[in-house]
């Protein structure tokens, strides 16, 4: 018998508020005057992120699988991940709102008269704010979705705006457009894999929901070939999104080509959403079949760490370097999935927040280092930066040390707890490789620090522009979180502990 | 006719699309191959829906169609901007980033 | 009542309307013949061996086509609602109104930003 569905709007409200903000933003683009748009859009975006966060706090203790029939789970992990996406997105929005990072008119041909005139008229792109909000809503849904359709739709809702945003850089337009094309083609390719995998999991279990798939695996009802194809293809799509080897080739190109604030947003928030969905799929739907996928994920995790750490050594561009560092971190984060226990989930949640703040901070620094033509991300020209502006360079070093996992930074606690979780579950190999690659990566981070502080600056050295209030806020928040979580990790570890659960 | 033949067809279409993405050089053709892969997944969804006697798969194919249309719009917008600034839609020409 | 009767009635009404329109147009419409009318109709393009401007269509066709696809495909979601319309009741109506409103926001954006202007 057909019954009308019941939606629990209070639990969906955090996502709905963001979507409403995005729609109002589109309306503003349509009806507001040009000079009013930028402040209005920033206001709408920040207000909806804050309102969504407040609503999330109000319902944080509710646990329900029926938020939207069987499609959205509202459990501890959802609350924690949606919350951290919102907090990081707030700072990313501040960075996006900082002057002059975006193209005035995306359709103008680079170097054309059209482009010069639109810059001269002082036009600026404000569509990026609604696009960001759409991406945030997709991320929040992706981390909470419990059926294959919702997962796929959320994946696209978060990806499509990001493809466009990657092509919006004001300087070096050709590079930026190229990044957008690469990101789009490879992203669409991987979503097709995700969808095909989903179709075969559906064929195996006869159910679109993750719990239905788990039940089918438990009673071993379907065709095992379908299950294998389903898991492998679904995994390809997800591994692409977090940038794991061998599906990482887009990461350095897109990180380099995209406007720096977007890169920061993408690196911090997409990773939370994609890893959140991946954790949910593996912990809820596929945990009964761990024998089949754990070896694959272990091998991928080890390769990812190694490739990320070793390739970072040979890079000459700061943004590419950070991209390879993010690949290495994807490898470390995969150990949380391999662990498949409650402390693995807790450690992953903590890791994502620690990594997210350090990443946004690091990209905020990149937006500040400039010459007359705009941002400079060539590493050779960063030499001796610490002598000129010790504060900014010092902050950058702090983020690098956190990436490297030095004690008294948040990165150390994150790595320590995620490796402990993997060790507890008996996966010693991956822990050994993890510690080993951390050492390689550390060598590289130290090299950059030596270059920044203990080398004489060259003549064509760059200037560090004075950060605006927005960038100052982002930097201050990132530095404080990185240090505080390193010294008093229990502040966040305790809440990660209490929120680390999936409803099935 | 055995209904599992549709699964084989879907797998064949998917493989054709996946290989096409790797070997073709024109961004539009690459993109058409991606669409072929999405449609292969759609066929699999509908067939499994029939085999399992469950309507979910057909709903999934609805959503896939809509998402694919949105992807077309975003993708072609990116490809056209690219073409306008370079007069070429070849993926090989887009190589400024590989240094 | 046999469930096929309403279908037959709808079919009859549809056929009747078509026949009526064609008939009335043939009787009352003005009959002027010129060159443009006897040419092949090709979606508003001048039918010529080569498209205008050396074999390529202007990008404005592309823009219109894209907008058409995006708004057209949204109709897909009205079908499941139409099937269960009476069972969903007010809930379904409200949700659909919200859905169509969001589509209209996108439409307003396209309209205000000049996406529908041909020249």
Any descriptors?
heterotrimer, B: about 100 residues, mainly alpha, Helix Hairpins, 3 helices, C: about 120 residues, Methane Monooxygenase Hydroxylase, Chain G, domain 1, 5 helices
Description:
The complex is a heterotrimer of chains A (504), B (99) and C (119). Chain A contains 20 helices and 3 strands. Helix content of chain A is 74%, strand content 1%. Chain A is mainly alpha-helical and 504 residues long. Chain A has helices at residues 9-31, 34-58, 76-97, 113-120, 128-144, 148-166, 173-205, 210-219, 224-242, 250-257, 260-285, 290-313, 318-339, 342-368, 385-388, 390-404, 410-424, 428-453, 469-487, 490-499; strands at 369-371, 374-375, 463-464. Chain A has one domain (9-499). In chain A, helix 1 runs antiparallel to helix 5 (128-144), helix 3 (76-97) runs antiparallel to helix 19 (469-487) and helix 17 packs across helix 19 (469-487). Chain A has a 3-stranded antiparallel beta sheet with strand order 2-1-3. Chain C contains 5 helices and no strands. The longest helix of chain C has 28 residues, at 85-112. The termini of chain C are far apart. The chains are: A mainly alpha (504), B mainly alpha (99), C mainly alpha (119). Chains in contact: A-B, A-C, B-C. The A-B interface holds A 106-107, 109-110, 148-149, 152-153, 156, 160, 163-164, 167, 173-175, 177-182, 184-185, 188-189, 191-193, 195-196, 198-200, 202-203, 206-208, 252-253, 256-257 and B 7, 10, 14, 17-18, 21, 27, 30-31, 34, 37-38, 40-41, 44-45, 47-49, 51-54, 56-57, 59-60, 63-64, 67, 70-71, 74-75, 77-79, 81-82, 84-86, 91, 94, 96-98.
Q: Give the overall shape of chain C, derived from the CA principal axes.
A: flat
Mean pLDDT across all residues of chain C, rounded? 82
The total of beta strands of chain C comes to 0
Largest sheet of chain A: 3 strands, antiparallel
Quick structural overview:
The complex is a heterotrimer of chains A (504), B (99) and C (119). With 504 residues, chain A is mainly alpha-helical.
